[in-house]
Specification:
The structure is a single chain. Helix 3 runs parallel beside helix 8, helix 5 packs antiparallel against helix 8 and helix 6 crosses helix 7. The chain has helices spanning about 5-25, 30-35, 40-50, 70-75, 90-120, 130-140, 180-195, 195-210, 215-235, 240-250, and strands at about 80-85, 85-90, 150, 160, 170. By secondary structure, it is mainly alpha-helical. It has ten helices and five strands. The chain is elongated, with a radius of gyration of 24 Å.
């Protein structure tokens, strides 16, 4: 096994094909409803792994190419510039730009995540004993030892969940009944129970690595929607038909 310009090019090609496959899987809602979102992440991870191992096995079959591949190889190994007596080829420039883009994307993502979470955690919360009691009942029924926080504030527009280890549910001041509050909290709590924040974090890291691939952004854009659909399915799976209707009406009016 050895690394060549050809194997490096093929690693990029296979990486792109895996990303394309992930996009097709994500758009198949029947498949997603049956198997969840993890196959999408698994295929995206395979894309990263295939690129990270740009090797060419000794027994591999090389498909001949008289024009395209030789032209690409010639361009990548041709000299771009000279730095301190060393010839810099275009392949090194390509890798440097890729690495720099990944570092910048990750840095920007981590900075924004830290600033957003710090701002949200410092919001002043209104007291709502009814909401606190409803959430406590839900948490106790599923994970009684889990620490959590509830913040009710008018500085947000829709309910949301933050916190990877100690979840914090943020809720705008809404005039909801106990049943409606239960639907809202069940939805947000299911995000935590299914580790959706961790899934989104992993996908953000993968997309930062594949920042040059537009398909990765399509997957990321649709990912949140798929997670929301999964949460909706989890909340209503054991209820009656009238409960489904009330849940949809409650969530739809937020």
């Amino acid at each position: 096994m050895h690394v060549t310009i050809f194997s490096f090019f093929m690693a990029i090609l296979w990486c792109s094909l895996f990303v394309l496959l992930a996009a097709f899987i994500e758009h198949d809602f029947t498949f997603v409803r049956k198997y969840g979102i993890m196959p999408v992440i698994a295929v995206m991870t395979l894309a990263i792994a295939r690129f990270a191992i740009p090797i060419e096995p000794s027994h591999s079959i090389v498909v001949g190419s008289d024009m395209v591949i030789p032209a690409i190889q010639h361009f990548l190994v041709s000299k771009c510039c000279t730095y301190r007596g060393h010839n810099i080829c275009w392949a090194y420039v390509f890798i440097a730009v890729w690495t720099l883009g990944t570092v910048l994307m990750l840095g920007n993502f981590l900075l924004q995540t830290f600033q957003t979470n710090r701002r949200l955690r410092n919001l002043q919360s209104f007291d709502d004993p009814n909401a606190a009691a409803v959430l406590e009942k839900i948490v106790t029924a599923s994970k009684p030892e889990q620490r959590y926080h509830l913040i009710i504030t008018d500085e947000i527009q829709t309910p949301m969940l933050i916190g990877f280890f100690v979840p914090t549910i943020l809720l705008p001041p809404l005039d909801l009944s106990k049943d409606e509050l239960s639907y809202v909290f069940l939805h947000e709590w299911s995000h935590f129970m299914h580790k959706d924040l961790w899934k989104k974090l992993l996908l953000d890291f993968i997309c930062a690595f594949l920042w040059w691939n537009p398909i990765a952004y399509i997957i990321k854009k649709n990912f949140d929607y798929v997670l929301e659909v999964n949460c909706d399915r989890y909340v209503v799976q054991s209820g009656k038909a009238e409960d489904h209707i009330r849940y949809v009406e409650t969530i739809g009016n937020l």
